[in-house]
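step: validate -> pass
step: tokenize input -> pass
step: predict -> running
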Amino acid sequence: MTESPPSRRLGRVLLWTTLSILALACFVALLLWLTRPGPAFLQGQIEADSIRVAAKVGGRVASIEVEEGDRVETGDLLATLFMPEVEARAGQVQAQVDAAGAMADMARSGARDEQIRAARAQWQAAVSQAELAAETRTRIESLHTDGVVPTQRRDEAVARAKSAQAQADAAREAYHMARSAVRPEELRAAEAQLRQAQRGLSEAQSTLAEAQQFAPVSGEVTNRVVEPGEVVGPGFPLLVITRTDRPWVTLNLREDLMPGIHPGRRFSGQLPALGMRSVEFQVHYIAPMADFATWRSSRDLGGFDLRTFEVRARPVEAVPDLRPGMSVLVDERSIKAEE
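step: predict -> pass
step: emit ->
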């Protein structure tokens, strides 16, 4: 018995309807799969400590021994400054030490005629130096009034003039002491003058040692601030050394992501610059950021504002080729997850 035409038409309609529903269902499922929310990533940045190498005194840069990108170790010579004024000062102080030592010996043993003449000669030399320093001070102050020289230069000239006058006064007293009979208190004064001169020599030598700058830490030279021939002032940075062996990643987290974040907490991050290599980090620093830059309105979420915290974490293990400035991607779900 054959099927009637209406029955066949109804069968085809049901078949096409079923296929259409299945196709629509597959399309909707594919659309939902393609539009599903992906993981939210937090972006951080690799940073490291930077050390600015500077001298405590000013001078002219004689040489820079390293180039940007060079690896240096603690104690390596980095730069040399030319400081003729400091060298001259050290020589003067050495002469004062010698003179004070001679005067102390003379006080112990009593002065001879030739010692008295030597003391007088030292006094006259000190007076000449004081007069020259006073004249130089007058000229420098005149130039400072005209705006030709800076205030620091004027202050240095004033200090040198005062120092020279004090040395002349000390030499005069030493001469008078040599002429008179030596008393116990004079002997003590001579020895004290010697100690003072020795301390001045130690200070001058310490200042002169600043002419050579050595690497205070191991790291990489990331910036040559000055070049040979330039004049730098006290404390002006010569080089910048970055401690690439102690990097960390900095993340700025809203406080709704902070539950479970504490020093010692570990999480994983991916580094695009290293082919999305996964690296494990450990939190070591947490601090709120400045209020004016970190408040975010969230009144639609409950009528309060959210602050932002700076979180720093170091790699648990050393990562080859890891450098400051590289980006780190952290899955927000790993931050929220419990340990």
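step: describe -> The chain has a mean pLDDT of 80.
step: cleanup -> pass
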